[in-house]
Specification:
Largest sheet: 2 strands, antiparallel
Helix content: 10-25%
Strand content: 15-25%
Number of strands: 2
Low-confidence stretches: none
Distance between the termini: 23 Å
Radius of gyration: 11 Å
Strand order of the largest sheet: 1-2
Length: 52
């Protein structure tokens, strides 16, 4: 089962297919990550708290 590299949360295979670079096995950040977000092709720290 795919896992987020940042928080270890389960992610679906469809999420991995869409949001993960083809040379990487798991996403670097997922919707469950409160401290990091995707910013285009990069990953960065969140500037403000995220709402669940």
């Amino acid at each position: 089962m795919p896992e987020c590299q940042n928080c270890g949360s389960f992610v679906t295979k469809d999420y991995v297919r869409v949001f993960t670079p083809s040379d990487t096995d798991g996403p670097r950040v997922c919707p469950a990550c409160e401290d990091m977000i995707r910013d285009g092709a990069e990953v960065r720290e969140a500037r403000s708290p995220r709402q669940p």
